[in-house]
Amino acid sequence: MRSEWRTPLLLTLGWRNLWRHTRRTLMILFAFALGVWSMIVIAAITRGSMEQQLDKSILHLTGHIQLHVAAFRDDPVIEHRFVPPPALKTALAGEGITAWAPRVRVPGVISSERESAGVTLVGIEPGRERGLSFIPEAVTDGRYLESAEDPGLLLGRKLAERLETGLGRRVVLMSQDVDNRVADRGFRVVGIFDTQPRQMEEAYVFIGRATAQQMLKLDGHVTEVAAMATDRDRLDAPLMRLRAAAPGLDVQPWTVLEPLLVLTRKITDVILIIWYAIVFAAMSFGLINTLLMAVFERTREFGLFQSLGMRPAHILGQVLVESLILLVLALAAGNLLAAATVYALRDGIDLSAVAEGMELVGVAPVIYPAWSTGDMAAANLLVFVLGLAASLYPAWRAARHVPVEAITRA
Questions:
Q1: What is the arithmetic mean of pLDDT over 51-64?
Q2: Residues 6 or more apart from 110 whose CB is under 8 A from it?
Q3: Concatenated DSSP letters for 51-69?
């Protein structure tokens, strides 16, 4: 008799016992599937929002890697300039780097006929900024800069409103040149750009790199070089190559340049873990309660099985198999629902009604959920492993009954 208590029989018994109380089984399945669905969908929405923040910050002139004179990040002034060495240009053209550009970035003041404002003047090579920064795609009125020698200027919409100026109007840009004298020049606004957050529209003005060098007497010097890599999370090889090519420069990845983003990313991971724990705790109470009720109702049955030769270990296995079937069904349903939900939200969750409030905390007005196999695997593994662990107590209770007492129990 004992040789007959094998896995196929335990699976058959577990399946049949699970559907003795269809309503109860369906309720616990629904609860578990809902919990798994909430884990995966909320993780996808949170991860999508975080990825959008990362991508946006990287495109907002940060890039994946930046090169400066060592003191520039603490004091971004024109004195901290350099000429990119030929070896650096060769390294930037190597494997792992998809785009790079030299820039002139210094403090400045812009004045219109009515108002003035402090800004950051950025001299760019327009063609090299494609795929590296937000600037080429952000110009919504007028035109983008055509070359590094372009005499025009790009202005943010919010700054244009503040200065009471607009497309085609002239403004005066002032900064400090290499001789510590005020350098000023008149520019015509050739393009208006829009971006999020709106503070970026007030913070920067863009002109051609060669134009900026001529205005500030830089003679080929720049203040930074930004680069984009094939993978933002695998920068060790490009960093080593660039540091070897430019040993006198400070070469740093975006994780050093944007420490707040790295911290936000870590906090997001912690929040997701806490959410997983809360959801599973609620689900585990339901699972344990359901299995304990099933064990209590079948006390005499378990006693009969033991009297026929079934070992306590097989009783324990039978209850665990029931839990296993329940978990597999719930995980399958939860994953299918989550996949359908994320697919349905592929065009984004529109929060434009509260866009201003979302912007204050750095969240885009439209959130695109990001399906992560890592988050999905973590949720499934957590529910499966801890679900089986939570089933051990009801299974142990079922296996410890004495056959004679169990059979005679009313």
A1: 89
A2: 116, 117, 119, 155, 159, 163, 171, 172, 173, 174, 205
A3: HHHHHHHIIIII-SEEEE-
